[in-house]
Amino acid sequence: MKTTFNKYPKTTIEDFDTGIIKGNDSIISLLKTKYKHARIIVLECYPGTDYETLARTFIKPLKLKSLFVDQLAYDEKTLDAKLADHLTDDRVFGRMSQYQIEEFYPSKNIDYIKKTAQETTEPIIIYGFGASRFVRADVTLYLDLARWNIKNRYRNGMPNWQSTQKDLDTLKKEKRGFFVEWRVADRIKKTTFPHMDYYIDGNDEAALKMVTKSDYFAALEETVNKPFSMVPFFDPGVWGGQWMKEVCNLDKNKENYAWSFNGIVEENAMYYAFGDDYIESPTINLVFFKPVQLLGDKVHARFGTEFPIRFDFLDTMDGGNLSLQVHPLTEYIQQTFGMAYTQDESYYILDSKKGGVYIGLKDDAKKEDVIRDLRRAENGEIDFPAESYINYYESKPHDHISIPAGTIHCSATNTMVLEISATPYIFTFKMWDWGRLGLDGLPRPIHLDHALQNVVWDRRTDFVEKELLNPFKVIQDTPKVKEIHTGLHHRQFIETRRHEHKEKIMHETHDSVNMMMLVEGERAIIESPTKAFAPFVVNYAETFIIPEGVKSFTIAPYAQSVGKTIKTIKAFVRT
Residue 80 to residues 100, 141, 153, 181, 575: CA-CA distances in angstroms? Predict the structure, then answer.
C-alpha cells in the first residue's frame, strides 16, 4: 500500500517573538552585540557534542578567552573504574545510575573552574558537559542533541564522553550513554533550562540554530495543547523486511529495514518550525518541562517525567524471525537494573503474508527439556527446536496479541508488527536467535541466564488462547462507529482501543496522554470541537500523540478516504 507517509513531520509554532537565529556567524554576532558587556558566557553541552567542530566553528571565532571544562574531569582510567559497577561486563545491560555531574570532576578542579570565573578580568566562555552547574553566568546557552544523532555518531567512531575507545562495540557505547551519560545530562537539563537564555540545536555544530528561552518554552507550551508527530527513524537488522520501504517511502537500495522508531519519546526528536525554518529538539524535553499538560495529572503522579507508552515497527516481511525472547518481570527489572517498571508489550498486526507469531509454551513442553535445548543451542550444539516447544499462530491484519512480561514470544517472518508497549527501551532477553550474526559480524547477545529467571512457565497454550490472542471486547457498535477494546492484558497498564468509522467521531483522552496510529485508510483529520488547535492531518501508519490536556477531539476520514472506513488504534494509561 503506497502512502504519503511523512518522514519529516514539523510542528508549526504560531506564537513566538524572535524566531531562529541561524548559523554560527549570526549567533556570534548577536552575542557580541547584545552581550558586549557580559563577563561570563556559559555553554552547556550534551554529551556527544563534536567539540572539535564546535571549537573550530564557534568557540575560536567568538574570540573570547575560553575554558573547556571537560578537560578538567576525571581521566579515562579513573572514570572507567568509577562507572564499572553500573556498566558491568555485559554488552547490553547495565544498572541505572544516580550520578550527578559533580561526581565526575575532582573537587579541586571544580574549585578551579569557579575561581577562574570569579577572577577573570576579561570576558570568557566556559563550555562543556557540566559547565552550567559549576558557574553562575551572565549569559547561559544550552546546546542539545537528538538521541538518534548521538547513536549514529557512536556508529561512525565517536567514543563516549571522556573515552578514547573509538572502536568500542557500539552496543557498549550506547549502554554507557543510556545508563550513565544521558541520565546525568538530563539531570543537568532539568536544572539549567529554567535559567538558560538561549536554546541551541547542536545537531550540526558547524551550522548551529538558536532560539531564545522564551521562544523555546512557547514552542513546548503550544505543542502540549495540540496533536503532534515526532520525527521517525529507520534502521536495518538481520531479520529486517521490505514492507517499510514501500509504505514509508524509504531507500529502495537498502537491503532491508527492521525497525522504525516512530513513537519512542526518549529516542525520537521534534522539528519545531518557526516561520520558514525549524530546530530539531529531543521530544523528552516536553515530558521534563510540561509533564502534566502532556501526560495528564494521574499519569504524571504515577510515572513522573517519563513517557510510559511506546509505538514502533517490526518489519519481517520477506525477512526473518525475530529472536525468541522474554522481558523481565517487574521485580527483576527493579532489583537488577534499577528501572521502575518493565517492558510489557503487544503486537498489533498491520500486515501479514501467512506470517505469524511464536508465543507461550505448548502444553506438553517440559521445563527441563526447554532449558536443556536452549543451553545446547547457546553452546552451538543444536538449533533450538522452537516449533516443538513454543506455540505458533498464523496472523492476519488487525490481530492484537498481548505479551505481558515473562511470556516467551517473537514475531515470525512475513509479519508487519506495530509494537505497542511500555517504555523501558532495551530490556529484551534473547533466548535463541536462529544462529545468526549481527550486522556488525558479531554474535548477537544472548541473555539466557537473565531470561530463565523471568519465564513464567505456566503461560501455555490454553492461557495464550484465552487471555493473549485477540482478547477483543466491543465497547460500542453503532451505525456511526465500532469501538473495540483490543487489549492489553490485565497485568499491563496500557489500554488499547480500535475505532472503525466512515464519518467524524468524538474521542476523549481518558485522563491520559493518547498515542495513536491510522491503521487502515489513507488519511484522517484530527480537529478540536472548540477550534482550540488547527486541524491536524495524518497518513496511514503515522504515529501521533494527543496530549491529555486536549481532553476531547474528533477524527474523520480525509481527502481520498472520505466515504471510506478508516481504523485507528489508540493507546492510553489505565487510570
Answer: 16, 29, 21, 12, 42
CA dist list (Å): 362 to 434, 458, 518: 19, 10, 34
pTM for the full predicted model: 0.96
Q: Are 349 and 400 in contact (CB under 8 A)?
A: yes
* 324 and 436 inside one domain: yes
The answer to whether the beta carbons of residues 288 and 189 sit under 8 Å apart is: yes
In a domain, 443, yes or no: yes
Summarised one tens digit per residue, pLDDT across range 496-545 is 999 999 999 999 999 999 999 999 999 999 999 999 999 999 999 999 99
Cα–Cα distances (Å) from 96 to 150, 161, 184, 207, 228, in that order, read 19, 17, 10, 34, 30
Same-domain status, 161 and 97: yes
CB neighbour list of residue 465: distance below 8 Å, 6 or more residues apart:
none
Q: Output the nine-digit C-alpha cell for 466.
A: 484465552
* 504 contacts 517 by C-beta, under 8 angstroms: no
pLDDT tens figures, 155-165: 999 999 999 99
Query: Which of 468, 498, 524 is where one domain is finished?
Result: 468
Q: Give every strand in the sheet of 400-403, ordered side by side.
A: 233-235, 259-263, 309-315, 415-422, 345-352, 400-403
Q: Can you give the CATH number for the domain in which 436 is found?
A: 2.60.120.10
Q: Show the domain range for 58.
A: 11-223
Instruction: Tell me which residue of 183, 74, 196 sits closest to 132, measured CA to CA.
Output: 196
